[in-house]
Write a structure and sequence with these properties.
The chain is an all-beta fold. It is built from no helices and eight strands. The chain is globular, with a radius of gyration of 13 Å.
């Protein structure tokens, strides 16, 4: 199982109906197989996610955030990890808004090393 605890990510790709951008930063925490994170930046004022790390390192989670329009948005996501040659993780994500919009999208986020 991949240990996501303490890892930081930023978006490198997103479909047009998403609100996450290269200005959005995620900070992941992991306790056992429970994943949580906070995120902010770009159109996102503040967001949180909670989910499960599967044995193969895949992530299944739900997310909620407040955007710069003062709207509360939320959805669900399934992420498949790729380990890059330098050891960083890239996550290939398929997500769906579960609020009024109900649309789907895909994004890629990549680990940032400070």
């Amino acid at each position: 199982m991949i240990d996501y605890n303490g890892r930081k990510f930023t978006s490198i790709e997103n479909t047009a109906n998403g609100e996450v951008s290269s200005s959005t930063f995620f900070e992941y925490k992991q306790e056992g197989n429970i994943l949580s994170a906070t995120y902010r930046g770009g159109e996102i004022v503040k967001g949180t996610l909670i989910g499960i790390v599967k044995e193969n390192g895949h992530l299944q989670f739900r997310y909620n955030h407040v955007n710069t329009k003062n709207e509360i948005r939320g959805g669900q996501c399934y992420s498949i990890p790729e380990t890059l040659p330098d050891g960083r993780i890239r996550l290939h994500e398929k997500w769906k808004w579960t609020d009024a919009e109900q649309t789907e999208g895909e994004s890629v986020i990549e680990e940032v090393i400070n």
